[in-house]
Amino acid sequence: MSSVPLVRLSAREAWRQAWQTVRGYKLRSLLLILGVAIGVATLLAIVTIVSGLSGRIREDIVSATRPYLYIARYTGLGGEDIDAKLRRRQLDPELLPLVAAVPGVDRVDYMIQTHRGDVLTYGKERTQFVSTVGATENFAIMYSYQVGEGRFFTRRELDARERVVVLGYGPRKDLFPRLDPIGSTLSIRGRPYLIVGTMAERKSITGSMGENYLVLPWTTYEKDFLDRGLEDRVIAATVAEGSTVDEVRQGVTGALRAGRRLRPSQPDDFDIVSSDTYGEMVDGITGAIAVVLTVLASIGLLVGGIGVMNIMLISVTERTKEIGVRMALGSRRRDVLLQVLLESGTLTLLGGVVGIVLGYVLSWAATKLLLFPFRIDPVTTVIAVVFSAAVGVVCGIYPANRAAKLDPVEALRAE
């Protein structure tokens, strides 16, 4: 129990007495601090982990280090008439030099792919279904894919329509678990292909699904595998440094309209979407998830706030006589109100600080385990500190107001 304070209570003295009260009731204070800390840690961990999840999905979907434009007859982001868009003309390879000549375009890639999967075999080894992609020599550079062994195919091999292939990490691991695959010949749909390289593991959030692919020159794909009516042909163009996405989009749109001989009155018969759009879509989805989880986790802080109110009511009851003595000696009601509010605010502030440390430790461990990006957000940290202190002040208003309204005479009679 703290000693009788000065009649006129300064803010500094109120803080000192609040701290003495916290130390005087160690177990009670510790349990309250722990309750608030768990609530804050849960909230902080949710925000940090969901932010890491968003960053990881962005990395997997966007992939490239530079912004890029994805051009197709239908990009998959919706539209008035999907069937009509799927009946559009494919993007022919003759459009590729037109896009490459647009000011602000750095690199371009042309890809052909069908929804059909291939099962590869080598000796007794067999793969799962893999996606076969026809692309240019810029594929790995534009999408930040790392070559693990060997090399990527060259422009000369693309122009010569050579049967060379680069295996994704999945089929490389399935077919050559203990052998060097470089220089081996692989049969794909009955045709021999020389393995010139393999891709490094991406550790995608989709797991093995994101690793099961192989890449070969699109010219060779067109020669050997083309499934007319089933394939998707797309063009990708990275935005050069110093140029904006909107500027390049306008230039590419004009080049494609000219290349496809569209009249001014005709609408575009292709879709263009930027990598930023995919990122914003991911942020929107993960942001909604974060809001729902944050609301659910806030129940923990609500419970902590109820605990603050309960403990402060007990504290006021136990110190009724002390409060009466102070008020009889001239303490103002606001002095009593200030001390009780500072005591509750101090308890939850300590809980918030402990919760921040605990929350970031848990977040760091979870993001490392899940292979998500981890970062400390100063704004979120400050909000957590302020919010935890505010919980104590708000939930301490009723006990503080009750203490401030005590009648000094009745309080002095209390045992």
Key attributes of the depicted protein:
elongated; single chain; 10-stranded mixed β-sheet; 415 residues; 2 domains; alpha+beta; 54% helix
Q: Please compute the radius of gyration using only Cα atoms.
A: 33 Å
Element order: H for helix, E for strand: HHEHHEEHEHEHEEEHEHEHHHHH
The end-to-end distance, rounded to whole angstroms, is 14 Å
Beta-sheet strand percentage? Answer: 15-25%
Count of folded domains: 2
Tell me the quaternary state: single chain
Q: Low-confidence segments, ≥5 residues, pLDDT <50?
A: 1-7
Helix/sheet category: alpha+beta
Identify the overall geometry. elongated
Provide mean pLDDT, rounded. Answer: 80
Number of strands: 10
Count of separate DSSP helical elements: 14
Description:
The protein is an alpha+beta fold. The chain has two domains: 11-60 and 281-413, no CATH class; 89-269, no CATH class. Helix content is 54%, strand content 18%. The protein has helices at 11-24, 26-62, 82-86, 96-100, 139-142, 155-159, 169-175, 218-224, 245-259, 275-318, 320-328, 333-370, 378-404, 408-413, and strands spanning 68-72, 105-122, 125-135, 147-150, 164-167, 185-188, 191-199, 213-217, 231-239, 271-274. Strands 1, 2, 3, 4, 5, 6, 7, 8, 9 and 10 form a ten-stranded mixed beta sheet that branches. A hairpin with a 2-residue loop joins β6 and β7. α2 (26-62) runs antiparallel to α13. The model is unreliable at 1-7 (pLDDT under 50).
